[in-house]
Design goal:
Oligomer: single chain
Distance between the termini: 44 Å
Largest sheet: none
Number of strands: 0
Mean pLDDT: 87
Number of helices: 16
Radius of gyration: 21 Å
Helix content: 55-70%
Length: 371
């Protein structure tokens, strides 16, 4: 079997990469359906509050990023937790990563199918985006992390195009009231959980520290990246409330996507096609990074960390993901109850790992350093 250097390191990536990684890992499928889950205008405060709590989590993660254990990668985890717990964590991570890759892929494919390729079989679209992600991932973790620059340049400006919706003649600012909730329902709690899960993307950075700089000043980059995400979420949510109104908003599957078709330019038509296509770079980046994490988790619980990475190993991981996504699409995603079940499962797992992993690592590092 021909070896493949997927996890080699030639240099460490600087602090600005932390900013880009945090921001892009928080801006994926959930941003497209976020208004449907939040609906009420006062949930804008939910975005702000959950975003600030995310800042606290990132501060705890920065303690891990600057620790000597994080720089050692797999060996650092062994020193903190021991071999058997790390293998258990790897099995859980294997399943959690598979779920996340499946959800973000199926979500984006559904949008592509609805807006651009309504007559194409979704299985071909799934194969297409996974092949691109496999190509990017095959260049190794270091180069895949560098791909975040392209993902940022292709996606960060999209939110700016929605600013004109604040100044449309039919924009009714009364739709933004009440800003203080008069009642609090189960849907509101679900909205907060949704936001927290949407901010959870950077938790996977804890496994990528060997390729990132461990400079003690990285916390400011984490804060700036998270603040950018908060502003993007607030901007898009408020724009969608002004455009649809709270009562109609809950009936739209992809409110952000449909708003894109109303963006007017002097020289271009169907601007939504362009925006959806550019947004693909962010998905390719996310899936590529998660594919490498998925392969790494498989190597840990199969006890092959001492062996070199191989093409057949990466392809096998990719094939498992491909088959899983196609089966989920056919059996669950194309039905309303199945899709809701998968989304709720991802919301809960994303929320739990973002709550637990930073806290566990923070406590473990503090305990080891005090011994």
């Amino acid at each position: 079997m021909k070896s493949l250097s997927l996890y080699n390191r030639t240099s460490t990536l600087g602090g600005i990469y932390f900013l880009l990684l945090v921001n892009r890992m928080q801006m994926h499928y959930f941003i497209l359906i976020m208004p449907v889950y939040l609906v009420h205008s006062y949930m804008v405060w939910g975005i702000v509050v959950m975003g600030l709590l995310s800042q606290l989590n990132l501060m705890m993660m920065s303690k891990w990023f600057t620790s000597s254990y994080a720089a050692k990668g797999y060996q650092g985890f062994l020193q903190l937790f021991g071999k058997r717990p790390v293998q258990v964590f790897a099995i859980l991570g294997f399943l959690i990563i598979l779920l996340k890759i499946s959800i973000i892929t199926l979500g984006y494919i559904e949008m592509l199918h609805n807006f651009i390729f309504p007559s194409m079989d979704t299985r071909w679209l799934i194969l297409f985006i996974l092949l691109i992600s496999l190509y990017v991932a095959s260049h190794g973790m270091e180069n895949t992390l560098r791909f975040v620059v392209i993902a940022f340049l292709c996606g960060a400006w999209i939110s700016v195009l929605f600013i004109p919706f604040f100044f449309q003649p039919d924009a009714n600012y009364r739709d933004l009231y009440p800003l203080i909730p008069t009642e609090w329902s189960g849907q509101s709690w679900q909205g907060l959980l949704f936001i927290w899960s949407a901010f959870s993307g950077p938790v996977y950075l804890v496994f990528m520290v060997p390729w990132l700089s461990s400079n003690k000043k990285i916390s400011k980059y984490l804060v700036i990246g998270n603040m950018m995400s908060i502003m993007e979420y607030v901007l898009l949510f408020v724009a969608s409330v002004l455009f649809y109104g709270s009562h109609y908003l809950r009936k739209i599957d992809f409110p952000i996507g449909y708003m894109g078709s109303y963006i007017q330019t002097s020289g271009l038509e169907r601007i939504d096609y362009i925006l959806i296509s550019f947004h693909m770079f962010n998905y390719v980046f996310d899936i590529s990074i998660l594919l490498l994490c998925f392969y790494g988790a498989g190597r840990i619980f199969m006890r092959k960390m001492k062996e070199r990475t191989t093409r057949i190993g990466l392809l096998s991981s990719w094939f498992v993901i491909l088959i899983s996504i196609i089966l989920m699409d056919q059996w669950l995603w194309q039905t309303v109850p199945g899709q809701k079940m998968l989304l709720n499962l991802q919301i809960w797992t994303g929320s739990c790992i973002y709550l637990l992993i930073p806290a566990i690592l923070f406590i473990a590092v503090r305990r080891k350093e005090s011994m």
